Amino acid sequence: MHAEAIRQHGADEDLGGPVLMALALHLGIALLLLVAGWLQPPPKQISVAGPVLDAMLVVSASDIAAAEQTAEAAPQPARRAEIEAAPPPQPMPAPRPQDAPREAQPAPQAPIPKPDTRELEAAARLALEQEQAREREEQEARKRQEQIDLTERKRQEEVEERQRLRRQELARLQAERQAAERSAKLEEARLRQLADRQASPAPAAQPTQAPAQVSGGNNGTDTDLAARYALAMLQTAQNNWNRVLAPERTRCQVEFTQIPGGEVIDVAFLACPFDAQGRESVERALRRTPMPYEEFKSVFRRKVQLTFCYPEEACR
Amino acid sequence: MSRILTFLALALLLPFGQARAQQALDIGVVTGTEGALPIAVVPMPYLGTSVAPDTDIAAVIRADLNRSGQFRALAEQDVIEKPIRGSEIKFPTWRVLRQDFVVVGRVLDNPDGGYRVEYELWDVAKQERLLGLAVGGRARGMRDVAHQIADQVYEKILGVRGAFWTRIAYVTANGVGGNIQYTLMIADSDGFNPQTVVRSPEPLLSPAWSPDGRRLAYVSFERGNSTIYIQEIATGAREVVASFRGINGAPAFSPDGRRLALTLSKSGNPEIYVMDLASKQLTQVTRHWGIDTEAVWSADGQTLVFTSDRAGKPQLYQVPAGGGEATRLSFQGDSNAKASISFDGKKIAMAQGNGNVYRIAVLDRSFGGAGRWQTLSPGNLDESPSFAPNASMLLYATKEGSRGVLYAVSADGRVRQRLVLADGDVREPAWSPYRQR
User: ω into residue B380 within 30 of 0, thus cis?
Assistant: First the structure.
């Protein structure tokens, strides 16, 4: 419906009106351009105060003569060469097919006799390379042999080392056995002495039953060694205890039993509020590696107590 | 006669003297060190008569235990002996390798089809068997079998149930411009076996697991406005639970699965509501002019922790689930948002902003007082933390270039690992509860 109204409206219009209006617009623009030219402002004139000065140029006859002389002496400009007109364009020559007849070679040229240095060079190079390769191989073989020798030597050394260690171990064991025999004899002697004393009327005598390792020897030295022994055991437990499974600020007191050699065979929890996982972590820490033994045989203790707790400041 | 009596008396006294001499030596306090527990998982060969399974069971167990941060599994190339039974274990070897535990096993054919993995867990120090079990599974489910073994080993050693046999939900966005496709996915806890839950050309947001792990609540814009759906994972059936005027967002199931906390702005301002899922009845929990959103439930279901900008910047607040006065929880960092609470309620993880850097921070309230803060991620745009059901690990989203990726980090922050997921922009992770055994 809207489209029909638009079409009807277009048909009723006369074309005369718009044409007249267009003409009027063009005339108007032309007039505006003319008027714009007239309406340009006049050029600005310089105005200076004061009267106008009159001056006269006086030229004497001698001046004229001098000027003429100078004019004659002045170099004359060269006559300008007449410029020739450009030649009319020449037609381009028509391209012709190139024809370069070459005479066939009557006979093949005989090869120029030339010494074949290339082959010789190649042969020399090959020989050199072969030589180098041989040297390399020899070197490698030497190295391999050296390596084999070295490995063999190492192996032998290892074997010797093992044998040496075994001998040492054997010697140690023998020494231990002898020491044990000695101490057994000593104990027997002591027991005999004890029995003799018991037989005698002096009842005040105390049995000296404590192990020789603990009670015997120099007190000062033993005390120092004992302290180092305690520290070494503490450090072993310290390195082995992973506390992530244990609660903070809780003291777990344990007593472990070890055998000569440092292996822990039993862990008893004396006062330990840790849960099963915490207790497992403590037991694992004590059994993970043997406690120090070799250096501390003389101060060896079967039963040792220690407390697991962290952080340190909360456990003092 | 008197000599005999004296001898007997001395013999009786002798043990006392010995006892004194052998009295235990007290060497003091051991404070120990902290570190992951060393464990060796020996490759488990297939001894059946059919085709060997695709999954390397030992490798999956090893990766699981390593990812937890609690264990340091011996690398496969360092496993120099390969026993498959406890009787074949040479303990001195594992002692030299300084391993606390050894897991050995083998894969056999299951008489009912599929495979059966027989495995043993041994304590190296005590040379004692801690576990000896068999787990069966279908050929396609051997990763599940491996995750279950890792869970059992984890629980036996640490006393806490493992969370490797769980799943994660996340949203991916693929494509550019008007062709972006949003997908809600679920995958194994290590990112393997991804499956599509729902796909939409309109944004999908805020996936939340039901406590039984069978349903997911999420926000979708596929109807034009935001709408909260609950969808059964197994069947794909879903229902609209909230489609009010304005914002419908941030759903969270209560621990008993009967209620849903959500954010609605039907009153004109985003507030926290609790919906009874049976009756769909709503209870308004917060009434404040500030924006209140992202509510999560405490472990006992009595309180809600939510994000609010009522103090000017986003911070975490706590409010009784039935409504009441909110109290502020977070006082560290410029802003704190998107809380995730551990199963025991002791730890709250959040995305903490300081300037333009956003990291995952954990507030540990185990020791009372103002709690202890720990930052778990390096930044700069880390967001959406989600605790594993045993709180041993956290999942969070971050940006690598312009792409979103997921990371799993151990609760102590020691181990951080990017999850292997499908391509695309990954965001909004949510760790599932334990799976039903």
Answer: yes
Model confidence over A51-65: pLDDT tens digits? 665 556 666 777 777
Whether the CB of A214 is below 8 Å from some CB of chain B: the reply is yes
List the 235-264 stretch of A: residues with Cβ below 8 A of B.
237-239, 241-246, 251, 255
Structure tokens given for A310:
């962290």
CATH number of domain containing B78: 3.40.50.10070
Contacts of A284 in chain B (CB under 8 A): 100, 123, 125-126
Residue A305 lies in a domain: yes
Give the residue on A whose Cα is nearest the Cα of B1.
Answer: A199
Interchain contact, A284 vs B123, CB within 8 Å:
yes
- Position of tokens 């488990």? B44
CA nearest to B124 within chain A: A288
Contacts of B166 (CB under 8 A, 6+ apart): B188, B189, B213, B388, B389, B431, B432, B433, B434, B435
Residues A149 and A224 both lie in one domain: no
Distance of CA B245 to the CA centre of its chain: 36
This complex has an ipTM of 0.75
**Dmax over Cα atoms in chain A, in whole Å?**
179
Model-level pTM?
Answer: 0.67
In a domain, B16, yes or no: no
Query: Nearest to residue B79, comparing CAs of B38, B115, B107?
Result: B38
For residue B41, the enclosing domain spans: 37-158
Residues spanned by the domain of A136: 121-199
Q: In chain A, how many domains are there?
A: 2
Burial of B55 (0-12, 13-18, 19+ CB in 10 A): buried
Q: Is the pLDDT of residue B272 over 90?
A: yes
Q: Name the residue facing A209 among B17, B28, B158 (closest C-beta).
A: B17
Instruction: Among B3, B23, B35, select the one facing A242 at the smallest CB separation.
Output: B35
CA of B70, closest CA in chain A: separation in Å?
8
CA distances from A175 to A182, A183, B336 (A): 10, 12, 71
Among residues B36, B108, B105, the alpha carbon closest in space to that of B66 is found at B36
Cβ atoms of residues B329 and B305 within 8 Å: yes
Whether B34 has its CB under 8 Å from any CB of chain A: the answer is yes
B27 to A304: CB separation less than 8 angstroms, yes or no:
yes
Among residues B378, B395, B338, B336, which one has the least CA distance to residue B168? B395
* B380: in domain: yes
Reported as type and span, the H/E element at residue B100 is none
Q: Mean pLDDT over residues B113-131, rounded?
A: 94
Q: Is residue B19 part of a domain?
A: no
CA atoms within 13 A on the CB side of B103: 33
Based on the structure, what is the number of domains in chain B? Answer: 2
User: pLDDT tens-digit profile of B80-95?
Assistant: 899 999 999 999 999 9
The answer to whether residues B149 and B85 belong to one domain is yes
Note whether A215 contacts B35, CB cutoff 8 Å. no
